[in-house]
């Protein structure tokens, strides 16, 4: 394999034309779409229109004339096919953390009649905000609930027993890219009488997801990673139709009211997915999410997955071949069914090496302990990008061109 072979792969890539829909800086190989997706070209004009016309000229009338009020549901319906959800089952709103809090509270409430079930089972290596939300909720409830942390995916099945109310898992692990078998885990949770809540932050837009087929109960996720919705873009929450009547959550804001403009003093939950809403939404940010979703409507998740696996296979093979003399360790599963759309390598000086890569235009990121993360977004990542990134990594390692004393920024 050489660079010309990679160029030939790009020439035959049916997804290659989608790269033109993103505004990528010249001379940058962007391998951090698993943390923040690139900007769709349409986003700038869309933001200008929302600010100048919808807000600046039409002012408050845009809640009706521009459809601001229904935007969370409309976006949810556009996102739904990417995660195997139906119309009226998803809303885009709030943050992943807040949506997780709502979903977890609702799941515990649905299980509250089963008084022996007081445990939330999750992984110690889950994304920290998920753990913090579960810890905060159980502490606040103060009714005997507890969080049971499992140290490995192999221990999960045994940890889910008759005292388990909810299993809370991230589908693709943020550090390693390990992907759970959603159908098998959901089935096992149900066999034990538990509900299962999935975090799709590293799945939505990266791997095919079919929540209804695979038996999930609730799900949340973000739009600013593979969905390219912009920094801090609103998240989403999925509540299947079969659970909507029983779904109740403590953040009962006015957007979740059956008649929000009746201004009644008592809360009355609306029917359907609207009960997952809370307060007034950030409209400018919401509108930009649509620009990212529009690109996905030009292709399909199976084509995206096929290219993702090809890109990550190539990256692993090239790093192991061309950087074999260096202390790199593959932290990501080789098995396709267990891999998301990122590749993580460990290195004793991982942070310093990543900073050297970024300084040379290869942007990935770093997570403790000693993990360099490389995210592959098939909508705009090319096979030549993979070759060039590995060549730059090889030179950095061969020349020890990294500063082990590099100071760390607030975000790594």
UniProtKB/TrEMBL annotation:
Biological process (GO), any one: L-tryptophan catabolic process to kynurenine
Reaction it catalyzes: L-kynurenine + H2O = anthranilate + L-alanine + H(+); 3-hydroxy-L-kynurenine + H2O = 3-hydroxyanthranilate + L-alanine + H(+)
Enzyme Commission number(s) of this protein: 3.7.1.3
Cofactor: pyridoxal 5'-phosphate
Modified residues (N6-(pyridoxal phosphate)lysine): 225
Keywords tagged on the record: Hydrolase, Pyridine nucleotide biosynthesis, Pyridoxal phosphate
Highest taxon in the source lineage: Bacteria
GO molecular function: kynureninase activity; pyridoxal phosphate binding
Pfam families: KYNU_C
Known role: Catalyzes the cleavage of L-kynurenine (L-Kyn) and L-3-hydroxykynurenine (L-3OHKyn) into anthranilic acid (AA) and 3-hydroxyanthranilic acid (3-OHAA), respectively.
Family per record: Belongs to the kynureninase family.
Descriptive protein name: Kynureninase
């Amino acid at each position: 394999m050489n660079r010309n072979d990679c160029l030939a792969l790009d020439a035959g890539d049916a997804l290659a034309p989608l790269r033109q829909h993103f505004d990528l800086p010249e001379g940058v190989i962007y391998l951090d779409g698993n943390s923040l997706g690139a900007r769709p070209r349409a986003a700038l004009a869309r933001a200008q229109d929302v600010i100048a016309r919808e807000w600046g000229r039409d002012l408050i009338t845009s809640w009706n004339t521009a459809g601001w009020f229904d935007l969370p549901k409309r976006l949810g319906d556009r996102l739904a096919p990417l995660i195997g959800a139906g119309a009226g089952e998803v809303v885009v709103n709030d943050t992943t953390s807040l949506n997780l809090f709502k979903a977890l509270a609702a799941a515990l409430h649905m299980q509250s009649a089963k008084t022996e079930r007081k445990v939330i089972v999750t992984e110690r290596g889950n994304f920290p905000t998920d753990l913090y939300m579960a810890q905060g909720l159980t502490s606040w409830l103060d009714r005997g609930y507890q969080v049971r942390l499992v140290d490995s995916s192999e221990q999960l099945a045994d940890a889910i027993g008759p005292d388990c109310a909810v299993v809370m898992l991230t589908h693709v692990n943020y550090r390693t890219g390990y992907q759970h078998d959603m159908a098998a885990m959901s089935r096992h949770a149900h066999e034990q009488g538990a509900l299962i809540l999935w975090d799709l932050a590293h799945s939505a837009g990266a791997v095919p997801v079919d929540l209804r087929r695979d038996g999930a109960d609730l799900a949340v996720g973000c739009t600013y990673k593979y969905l390219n919705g912009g920094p801090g873009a609103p998240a989403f929450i999925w509540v299947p139709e079969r659970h909507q009547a029983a779904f109740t959550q403590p953040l009962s804001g006015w957007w979740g009211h059956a008649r929000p403009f009746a201004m009644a003093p008592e809360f009355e939950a609306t029917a359907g997915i609207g009960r997952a809403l809370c307060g007034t939404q950030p409209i400018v940010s919401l509108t930009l999410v649509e620009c990212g979703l529009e690109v996905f409507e030009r292709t399909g998740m199976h084509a995206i997955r096929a290219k993702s696996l090809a890109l990550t296979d190539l990256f692993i093979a090239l790093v192991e071949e061309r950087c074999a003399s260096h202390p790199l360790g593959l932290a990501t599963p080789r098995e396709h069914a267990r891999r998301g759309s990122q590749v993580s390598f460990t290195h004793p000086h991982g942070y310093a090496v990543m900073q050297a890569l970024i300084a040379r235009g290869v942007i990935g990121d770093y997570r403790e302990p000693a993990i360099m993360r490389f995210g592959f977004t098939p909508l705009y990542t090319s096979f030549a990008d993979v070759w060039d990134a590995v060549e730059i990594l090889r030179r950095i390692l061969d020349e020890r061109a990294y500063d082990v004393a590099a100071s760390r920024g607030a975000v790594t």
